[in-house]
Amino acid sequence: MSGHSKWAQIKHKKAHTDAKRGKTFTKIVKEISVAARIGGGDPSGNPRLRLAIEKAKEVNMPHDNIKRAIMKGTGELPGMSYEEFTYEGYGPGGVAVLIEALTDNKQRTVSEIRHTLSKHGGNLGEAGCVAWIFQQKGYLLVDKSKVDEDTLMTIALDAGAEDMKNDPKEDNYEVITSPEDLTKVKNALEAANLPVSLAETTMLPKNYVLLEERAAEQMLKLIELLEENEDVQNVYANFDIPDEVMTKADR
Predict the structure, then answer these.
(1) pLDDT, tens digit (0-9, with 9 covering 90-100), for 217-247
(2) 163 phi and psi, to 5 degrees?
(3) Which domain holds residue 151?
(4) Intra-chain end-to-end CA distance of the chain, in Å
(5) Cα 88 from Cα 96, distance rounded (Å)
(6) Are 222 and 116 members of one domain?
(7) How far apart are CA 201 and CA 179, in angstroms?
(8) Is the entire prediction scored with pTM above 0.90?
């Protein structure tokens, strides 16, 4: 797999700040409920639910909240019914944007997403216009201070990983897997006493658009606003950005 996007690393750093503000709780509760509704309430037999619970624990969500979300999903408790939708469009510079949402009101959600895109240099597209650019993958981050590159590569590839990336300017190695092998690779790394700072299924682009500074800042702002929408679960985009913009985004 070729290419590299700094956005994944920026997003990981911002997630810690969002978690402290409790911004992620509502979205994780939705994901747990939908995962339980689709695949059942037993995480051992439901990989999507298992990952959602792990994400909930990472942001210190109380166990009772997790349990209630599962029971609402399985119908044991009354709760809102959320539906999954994927929206496709473009951002500044022709960047492909894929938006995953969980909502109880599709008309409201699509209206809000369209407004955000059009107000910040983008537009909503037709179904299928950019989905072909992305592939579903497992994605892990491992702290560089905990292991050298050769050791991590050996362990990860032996466990079934597809690829590993090392951006010299980043603090983490990136490990790429098939969605099915994500948990197996994560367990292998942790068994080798390598702490995994992030493990999730994501949509990785097959190619990237390098943006100039102004367009890059506009694109980062657009994604930030999209992710502030409580119905939006994930935003994926195929852009890379200049190092000077990366530095500003880290602040």
Answers:
(1) 999 999 989 998 999 999 999 998 876 666 5
(2) -160, 160
(3) 134-205
(4) 30
(5) 8
(6) yes
(7) 6
(8) no
